[in-house]
Design a protein that fits this description.
With 303 residues, this protein is α/β, with parallel strands linked by helices. Helices cover 35% and strands 27% of the residues. The chain is built from 12 helices and 10 strands. It has helices at 2-10, 63-66, 83-97, 132-139, 155-166, 182-188, 196-206, 236-243, 250-256, 265-274, 280-286, 290-297; strands spanning 12-21, 24-35, 38-46, 71-76, 101-106, 119-124, 146-151, 170-175, 207-217, 225-233. Strands 6-5-7-8-4-9-10 form a 7-stranded mixed β-sheet, sandwiched between helices. A 3-stranded antiparallel β-sheet has the order 1-2-3. Strand 7, helix 5 and strand 8 form a beta-alpha-beta unit. The longest helix has 15 residues, at 83-97. It starts with a helix and ends in a 6-residue tail after the last helix.
């Protein structure tokens, strides 16, 4: 009934749907929409099994973000870039490794976790709790160690999530942005200009890392697609650049900090080519800087 009301009012609705076929339970993320007066639907199947963190060919440095005690970690990328899968695998890695309390607030729930070492509570907006703001108010009383907030799509969502990070929780979220460095501007765009200094301060002191991700088809047998990742950890210089509004220096700092676990898309593409996971020509086709990748493959500019 709730989704029907949303569809009637907004002209579109997102929800999760489960069906059983031949005794197998299938889950879908569904969008219903009106187009030219008729009802349309787009359905995306959600894997029943959460992919193994170490089997996704993600950068090893991402494991560092799974052991944090507090702060915020963002996954950036366009729709369909694998953000939910990466976060799901990171949370499941935590579930298999540490004794924590994980709380998710999702709209809708995608991966359904099976408790291992962690206590896991998954709440769906509109079904289990009225809205995100109320869910986050409840969350602070539910004593979670880790909170998944889903997409940071508006001012209230970001403010509530950053407040949770400030009060000692590890918060995971997603955002639509093309690169790790451009996430800062994307967040600031949510707020009026006069609030930017305080938001920059909140980002600088509470954000722990940003992972920007794209997907590319693999040439290895048995592997469909692999993630190309840009990774930015919030070290002293990253915080300094953000506080001083020098965001244009972030991309170059990422390139220079690969020994500290950071990497840009060029480094990620080179690594995947070297591992025999992607085709060289495909990589050059989508490389943000084709010349830099060509030089990296020749060993120029890579130390």
């Amino acid at each position: 009934d709730r989704q029907k009301k949303i569809l009637d009012i907004d002209g579109g609705a997102d929800f999760a749907h489960t069906c059983v076929v031949d005794d197998i339970r299938w889950r879908f993320r569904v969008n219903l929409l009106y187009q030219q007066g008729s009802l349309g639907m787009v359905a995306r199947r959600v894997n029943n099994k959460i992919p193994d963190f170490k089997g996704l060919f993600l950068p090893p440095s991402l494991e560092r973000m799974c052991v944090l005690d507090q702060g915020m970690v963002l996954l950036a990328g366009v729709t369909g870039s694998g953000k939910s899968t990466t976060i799901g695998s990171m949370l499941n890695y935590i579930n298999q490794t540490y004794r924590k309390h994980i709380l998710t607030l999702e709209d809708p729930i995608e991966f359904v976790f099976t408790e291992d070492k962690c206590l896991i509570n998954q709440r769906e907006i509109g079904t289990d709790v009225k809205n995100f703001e109320i869910g986050m108010k409840h969350a602070v009383r539910e004593d979670p160690d880790i909170i998944l907030v889903g997409e940071l799509r508006d001012v209230e969502t970001f403010k509530t999530a950053i407040h949770a990070a400030e009060t000692g929780h590890l918060v995971f979220g997603t955002i639509h942005a093309a690169s790790a460095s451009s996430c800062i501007g994307r967040i600031l765009d949510l707020f009026p200009q006069e609030e930017h200094p305080s938001i920059r301060s909140a980002i600088a002191f509470n954000m722990k890392g940003i992972i920007a991700q794209k997907l590319l088809k693999s040439i290895r047998e048995g592997v469909s697609r692999v993630p190309i990742c840009e990774v930015m950890f919030f070290d002293v210089l990253v915080r300094k650049y953000i506080l001083e509004e020098q965001d244009h220096l972030l991309a170059d700092h990422i390139k220079k900090s690969h020994r500290d676990g950071m990497q840009d898309f060029t480094m990620s593409l080179k690594s995947l080519i070297d591992q025999g996971l992607i085709d060289r020509n495909d990589a050059l086709e989508i490389a943000p800087n084709r010349e830099a990748l060509t030089m990296a493959l020749k060993g120029i500019g890579v130390t």
